[in-house]
Amino acid sequence: MSRLMLAVRSRSCRVAACLLAVAVASGGCSYSSRSALPPTPISVESSTVFAADGTRIHTFHAEENRRTVPLEEVPLHVRDAVIAIEDERFYRHNGVDLRAIVRAVRENTESGQVAQGGSTITQQYVKKVLLRDESRTVERKLEEAATALQLERHYSKDRILELYLNAIYFGNGAYGIAAAAEQYFGQRTADLTLAEGALLAGLIQRPTGTDPYDEPDLAVARRDVVLERMVDNHLATEEAAAAARAEPLTLASGDVPAAERYEAAYFVEEVKQFILDDSRFGATAQDRRDLLFGGGLRIQTTVDLAAQRAAEASATRVLPTAGTDPDVALVSIEPSTGYVRAMVGGRDFFGPGAVSKLNLATQGPRPAGSSFKPLVLATALAEGMPTSTTYSAPACITIRLPNEVWNPCNYAESGVGGRVNLVEATVKSFNTAYAQLMMDVGPKDVVEAAADLGVRSPLGADPSLVLGTSPVTAMDMASVYATFANRGVRVPPVFVTRITRADGTVLFRHQHSQERALDEGVADTLTAILEQAVNRGTGTAARLDRPAAGKTGTGQEWRDAWFAGFTPELATVVWVGFHEGQIDMEPPRTPIRVTGGSYPAQIWKGFMSAALAGRPVTPFAPPPPETGITPDTSVTTTTSRDREDEEDPDDPFGTIPDDGPHNTGRLIPDSPTPSRGRQTTTTTTTRPPPNRAPPGPRIVEVPAVIGRTAESATATLRAAGFVVSRRPAAGDYKPGTVVTQSPPGGSLAPQGSTVVIGVVGG
């Protein structure tokens, strides 16, 4: 930081300190309107959350786990620990400590950041309880100081300390020293040891960052800082502090009793945050908290408890062992309404530590792997690219970018010697073919399309995005696949349908909104392709006894695994991985190499089978005829296999296990040879194919014949090497005129494949 910047910062801090000094000198006269008395309890009524069918799920009695104890029940060494770390001059100032303010200004200026605060215990109590406002304006700091001065004139130091200890937040829902003693150590306040009291005192500044359940080492380190401060301030002897430092950290389980648990806890937490974060429910954060926890609200939600139980049961059945098995996130959305019907956000919302409250479905973005490919395919189809477009699909490919080389590879480095169209590239999840598609479509177009489809996480406009390298949430992907299921119409996810007050006054009513993100025909085409991915591709483990479409996804080094799929009734996304971070899911850490086609597809199938049991089977809308795709037949393709074993006529590629994570996203500096030591000679990013034709039938451009007579069209197509199939078509044209063509003119297709023409009058 420059000397000029430091000088400016120092001058600003001195001005703020002088203003505060003026407030102190004036005795707070300018801010006498704020009462310095502790707030008087007011009449409140609990708010209740209901499921979609009207079943009561949970009642918000209060946001806090709070118990009040008199100061004499708090051991002196616990009081001294709080004073030592939070306000060492507590008994020597009058509510505002100018010496502490000056010291904080000096140290913050020297460090170039806000390293210390100058607030006293009295000021903290005023800010947290009386003003209940976290804003940091000069005016608010002056009001805080003035009110602290008033409070000190009304109450003794011991009474202020008692109020403070019973109000301050210690993390994990524990407000006040008594609740904290029980939460962390399972005992009465009076029984806290010096080590335990020092640990609790250390939580006050950063209760989440030093949570002893999640960050035991940081919590112990902070405890030792408190003990050191106590020694420095002659509030503990060195011998007592040394004994406390040697005391091992032994915590209570932290589990919530069964009687206090409730269903769909991660979903309920999303409902809670919806109200707390929305200014429609109050101008300030405190207004919204007061309304939620004391306003007697009746909150109607979209969750289907039967579906929720099915989701949790399926996840537990496939991955039963907490702490050993990977974690699961699941989101299921009703496509036509956007209603979130089920949500799994983690192992146990009621477990100890802040991490247990982390909703992996909405707060834990992770790379989506190949489950992101349909977003690229949707972009390509929306821009007019036909499904008959072909690309080479070798085991690995080299794509040169400005100043970089990208070397994506297929799963297990499997590939084909010929070319594949977009259907087979998707069904078999060929990374190398999709890398070329991404170069033709363009990353920026894909990022824009993803936002239209429902992705809210930020995406990098990088070619490797096609292979799912940008982190997204399960909620993002569920919203996208719900848009596919809804034939291209995006409906934002909905958790709450109506909120009323206790007297029946409607406070909030959900207004349905929707927006077309994809042309209906494009969405139907995409669905038909994804249906084949389930029926005969990488997603066969997810097959249902009804039409289903979807896509697997596997992150690099098997660190994330996804299955995203849908029926006309539900769109559901499953993520499997470790919440701690990017941990490889392969032996010995897991029994198998976890791919999207394994655990995620199994969980998806188990959930969807139960959630849709007894409901009528609904078929997907067929794709437009000109695509040549039907639910039972794939577009004709041509390939030649790298190996010479006998081919299954129903599966000319050989079924590959999944879409795996090899070289999915790495970009390396430009070099004459690929980083993996493989010499590759392949085409990279453009159509038409290179001059040297690959093995197999020749790929040529399909002549455009719409508008010609059937005889002329047939002769032209046959001359180009195609087989012609005629079918009747309607239209206000002369009988015998060609009005439809599939594949369309100008697209690429192998010689010998069939072109279907629709002829007026047959």
Main sheet summary: 5 strands, mixed
Report the principal-axis shape: elongated
Can you name the CATH architecture of the domain at 3-33 and 64-246? Orthogonal Bundle
CATH topology of the domain at 3-33 and 64-246: Penicillin binding protein transpeptidase fold
Mean pLDDT: 82
Structural class: alpha+beta
**Oligomeric grouping of the chains:** single chain
Query: Total helix count?
Result: 21
State the CATH class of the domain at 3-33 and 64-246.
Answer: Mainly Alpha
Q: What's the CATH H-level superfamily name of the domain at 3-33 and 64-246? A: Biosynthetic peptidoglycan transglycosylase-like
Strand order of the largest sheet: 2-1-5-15-16
Spatial gap, N to C terminus: 80 Å
**Helical content, roughly?**
25-40%
The percent range for strand residues is: 5-15%
In short:
The protein is of the alpha+beta class and 762 residues long. It starts with a helix and ends with a strand.
Layout: helices, strands, pairs:
Blueprint: H1 3-25, E1 47-50, E2 56-60, E3 65-66, H2 76-86, H3 98-111, H4 121-131, H5 138-154, H6 157-165, E4 174-175, H7 177-185, H8 194-203, H9 216-232, H10 238-246, H11 265-277, H12 285-294, E5 298-301, H13 305-318, E6 327-333, E7 340-344, E8 366-367, H14 373-382, E9 390-392, E10 399-401, E11 404-406, E12 419-421, H15 422-427, H16 431-441, H17 443-453, E13 471-472, H18 474-485, E14 489-490, E15 496-500, E16 506-509, E17 515-516, H19 520-536, E18 549-554, E19 561-566, E20 571-577, H20 599-611, E21 667-669, E22 699-701, H21 710-719, E23 723-729, E24 738-742, E25 748-750, E26 754-760
Parallel strand pairs: 1-5, 3-4, 23-26
Antiparallel strand pairs: 1-2, 5-15, 6-7, 6-20, 8-13, 9-12, 10-11, 11-21, 14-17, 15-16, 18-19, 19-20, 22-25, 24-26
Helix pairs in contact: 1-3, 1-5, 2-8, 2-9, 4-5, 4-6, 8-9, 9-10, 11-12, 13-20, 14-16, 14-17, 14-19
